[in-house]
Amino acid sequence: MNWKTVCSKSQVHAEYPFAAKLAGKEIGIFLVDGDYYAIEDVCPHAYALLSQGFVEDGKVECPLHEAVFDIRSGRCLREPGGRDLSTYPLRVQGDDIQVDASRIEAGLEEVA
Ligand code: FES
């Protein structure tokens, strides 16, 4: 694991996720029922940030064409999302939110 601090807890709200950068990749930090989750932030369908989407009941709706994804699992629940999202291990250290960057840094994920 290669933990990187991406934001603080106070920057993440249930209705307003945080748009973070992790080793050059856009990652959305979401808060669902008191737990934090890190998922790919760029919608696989076209370019839109899911952290700017509509969040409800553990799901996020893309602001552009309304694909829906499960925040906990990354699963695409409604097209035109095209595929599931990558999810990333996350931990809370004090007020810091840290996400594991090892997959991205190993070149296993595209970066912008
Ligand atoms: S960009 Fe997200 S559904 Fe089209």
Layout of strands and helices, then pairs:
Elements: E1 3-8, E2 18-22, E3 25-32, E4 35-40, E5 54-56, E6 59-61, E7 68-70, E8 76-78, E9 87-88, E10 90-93, E11 96-100, H1 102-105
Antiparallel strand pairs: 1-11, 2-3, 3-4, 4-9, 5-6, 6-7, 7-8, 10-11
The protein binds FE2/S2 (inorganic) cluster.
Structure description:
This protein is mainly beta and 112 residues long. It has a single domain (3-105), classed as Rieske [2Fe-2S] iron-sulphur domain (Rieske Iron-sulfur Protein). The protein is 4% helix and 43% strand. It is built from one helix and eleven strands. Strand 3 (25-32) and strand 4 (35-40) form a beta hairpin. It is globular and about 35 Å long. The protein starts with a strand and ends in a 7-residue tail after the last helix. The mean pLDDT is 96. The structure holds FE2/S2 (inorganic) cluster.
Global shape: globular
Largest sheet: 4 strands, antiparallel
Fourth-tier CATH superfamily name: Rieske [2Fe-2S] iron-sulphur domain
Mean pLDDT: 96
The secondary-structure class comes to mainly beta
Q: Tell me which ligands are bound.
A: FE2/S2 (inorganic) cluster
| Alpha carbon gyration radius | 13 Å
Number of helices: 1
The CATH topology turns out to be Rieske Iron-sulfur Protein
| Count of β-strands | 11
Q: Could you state the order of secondary-structure elements as H and E?
A: EEEEEEEEEEEH
Q: How far apart, in Å, are the first and last alpha carbons?
A: 22 Å
CATH architecture: 3-layer Sandwich
Helix content: under 10%
| Uncertain residue segments | none
**How many domains in all?**
1
Relative strand content: 35-45%
CATH class: Mainly Beta
For the biggest β-sheet, the strand order reads: 2-3-4-9
